[in-house]
């Protein structure tokens, strides 16, 4: 079963997360397939840019609690997006939760329709947004991120854009994307690659410095008693025991 759809038009490769029955949760299989698709696009001289989008009403619900990827695999995927020598754009028309927000932050440009919503829900199931912090912390407002990391509150597109999680939003996401893609198609491929390298240098410094520690933190928290209770409560559609 293919979990990533692939189409191409005028040099733009569109990769679609295609597991809508699981709300495009980041399973080990989906993460591996997406990483391979990005690698292929990066090596293909016919690809000018990559658009990452989704089927169904959810861009990604975060880690698949039944088949989660290894933290190292998620680090590799996020770094692969940041390092890809082609611009990567997120196209969002649905909900984004937890690990899915790491994908948005890793992308060079992220646009959404006003139907989208966002939330860092990790603390509500007993873990922390550890690995996804690698691209998020260098690119978003730290005071706002503290609030949303600690509370799990939902953000709308206006707030997501204000804090740097989104580049732009509109009623019609394809209208928002059209001039951006036109600009990329008019840009020289080598110039795009070098310009992206300038823009991502600080993000990659964070990966180099913190990836090992945050990977270890993620593994420790996912193995904790609080995480077991939080995940069980989530799957059983009840409040975890710590809710007061």
UniProtKB/TrEMBL annotation:
Q: Which CDD domains match?
A: crotonase-like (cd06558)
Q: Which residues form a coiled coil?
A: none
Q: Which domain of life is it from?
A: Bacteria
What InterPro entries does this protein map onto? ClpP/crotonase-like_dom_sf (IPR029045), Enoyl-CoA_hydra/iso (IPR001753), Enoyl-CoA_hydra_C (IPR014748), Enoyl-CoA_Hydratase/Isomerase (IPR051683)
Please report which protein family the annotation says this sequence is part of. Belongs to the enoyl-CoA hydratase/isomerase family.
The record's NCBIfam families line, in alphabetical order, gives: PRK07827.1 (NF005879)
Protein name, UniProt field: Enoyl-CoA hydratase family protein
Originating organism: Streptomyces edwardsiae
